[in-house]
Amino acid sequence: MLTIEKLVKEENERQNNHIELIASENFTSKRIRNLCGSVLTNKYAEGYPGKRYYGGCNVIDRVETLAIENAKRLFECKFANVQPHSGSQANFSAYVALKNWIGIKDRKMKILSMSLSNGGHLTHGSPVSFSANDYEFSFFELNKDGRIDVKIVEKAIKAEKPDALLLGYSCYTYQIAFAPFAEICKKNKIKLIVDMAHFAGIVAAGLHDNPCKYADLVTSTTHKTLRGPRGAIILCNDEDLAKKVNSAVFPYAQGGPLEHIIAGKALGFEEAAQPKFKQYMEEVLKNTVACAEKLRSLGATVVLPENHLFMLNTKKSFGLTGLDAQHILEEYNITTNKNMLPDDDEKPNVTSGLRIGFPAMTTRGCNEQDAREIGQIIYDILKYRSNKGANEFEEGQKHLTARVQRLTRKMKRVEKL
Ligand SMILES: *Cc1c(COP(=O)(O)O)cnc(C)c1O
Fold this sequence. Notes:
The chain is of the alpha/beta class. Helices cover about 45% and strands about 15% of the residues. It is built from 16 helices and 15 strands. The protein has helices at about 5-15, 30-35, 60-75, 85-100, 130-135, 150-160, 180-185, 200-205, 240-255, 260-270, 275-295, 315-320, 320-330, 360-365, 370-385, 395-410, and strands at about 20, 45-50, 50, 80, 110-115, 135-140, 165-170, 190-195, 215-220, 230-235, 300, 310-315, 335, 335-340, 355. The longest helix has 23 residues, at about 275-295. The relative contact order is 0.15. The structure holds pyridoxal-5'-phosphate. Pyridoxal-5'-phosphate binds near residues 169 and 195. Pyridoxal-5'-phosphate binds near residues 87 and 169.
């Protein structure tokens, strides 16, 4: 009989047998997973610690307070809301809070951001998200090196006159230094929001500039590089804005908080504060470069990254679209995702490249040598499949599959982490 438990087992095996290179994924510790499956899921706790709409919340209050205190300590900020169910909902609430804080009533708030096609996120003004409907978004371009450039951004601020600048990305391979952007925001009297969903773990490890020192409002997921449970947070340093954030999360956007997940977040923040986590993040950065360098040395078109992800131009390197390359690699148990390159001439559901990241595999113990081997395997598979002769297909297929297996068997098992 098909039971849901059997499916979980199957997914467990899939995670163990695949080389997981999706840049937004990671593997949580067993302790975090146990908290997320704990009896805390049974409790209704609408409201905030000390101000709940239900009785019986004294333990829950201590759980959520611990999560808040851990988040504040980790990111060195004064206020934290740990209730958003996802990064998208955190952004939904953050924009509402900012609009109310500025006091905009009779018009849409205007936000300047990086477009989805340049590496932004759906909630940064894509027409298929609430964001483009509820707010007036405009977009800044990248410079010729593909970087966010303070001069270009300031020009766009002067032209578009937004209420806020939004920095953050889902697909961008450089680090961002926030001070110059905070400066132009101040000079032009606009607010600064940073969505650090992707790089929060690098910030937590002290290996990336901390946006909480500069931005009015910082949002983040907790499940990407940060390696906590699936969910999100909103951080700030202004008491009045923090109150607006709280009411924009509950009751405006959400009902009862997921206290079992909040318990997982509390531990995730604690884990991310350990020296071991800094070592882990240093490894992530090294592995990402090692794989990118390997691919480049073999002749593939790759730009060397400063963070946990890079883009492989599959069109230029192998004559394959991102979609085809993703499907081909999946046949060999290598999980990646297609992504638009800057100035991509393919549609978003086809693309000319792949996004490749190392947060997940590094958690399973992948080192630089393994990362180089992964680069070599990716190259061999895509090269082979882009100009395979039909009769040599089977032999090569077996060989490539064996190399993936050898690698995944060497890694730590995900249920034991
Ligand atoms: C992943 C991501 C989000 C959204 O997170 P979800 O939990 O999937 O809703 C928001 N912003 C950025 C920049 C992201 O990368």
